[in-house]
Write a structure and sequence with these properties.
GO biological process, one term: mRNA splice site recognition
GO molecular function: mRNA binding
Order of helices and strands: HHHHH
Protein name: Putative nuclear mrna splicing via spliceosome
Oligomer: single chain
Number of strands: 0
Pfam family, one: LUC7
Strand content: under 5%
Structural class: mainly alpha
Family: Belongs to the Luc7 family.
Length: 151
């Protein structure tokens, strides 16, 4: 909560709002670890899906427009390339995760619809489910045995 208020004050009054008027302001560098690298590249994924099941929570890094401007104006370098690759990797993982949740939801919906269609169950799906359950139980049993052996 305090970090959110601090970030809001930084946006409204500037990062150097608490400095003594005679003191010199700290030079802003986009490469500082306090700035959100995703925000510098394009946008912060933490701002997406707010108040949904896929909510990532509040970002712990600063979102500073001046740092973003400096990042955009900076010449291409290894650190910028790394930030962009990390951003793309994070976004790709988020897309894959959301796609997986959508597919799982569709399967659940189809399964629910098939069970309500006249009360008959689908034997093929049930056999597949039973086979997977047996496989999972077998792997859990093997893991327990390996744990008791100490391997």
């Amino acid at each position: 909560m305090v970090d959110v208020a601090r970030q809001l004050l930084d946006e409204l009054m500037g990062r150097n709002r608490n400095l003594d008027p005679t003191a010199s302001a700290k030079e802003v560098s986009w490469a500082d670890e306090e700035f959100c690298p995703y925000f510098l590249v394009k946008f912060c994924p933490h701002d997406l899906f707010v108040n949904t099941r896929a909510d990532l929570g509040q970002c712990t890094k600063l979102h500073d427009d001046e740092a973003k401007r400096l990042y955009d104006e900076a010449k291409p370098c290894r650190k910028k390339t790394q930030y962009e690759e990390d951003f793309l990797r994070f976004c790709t993982n988020m897309i894959n995760e959301v796609d997986r949740k959508i597919a799982k939801g569709k399967q659940r919906l189809l399964l629910m619809n098939s069970k309500t269609d006249g009360g008959r169950s689908v034997p093929k799906q049930q056999e597949h489910l039973n086979a997977l359950t047996e496989k999972i139980n077998k792997l859990v049993h093997e893991a327990e045995e390996a744990g008791t052996r100490g391997t």
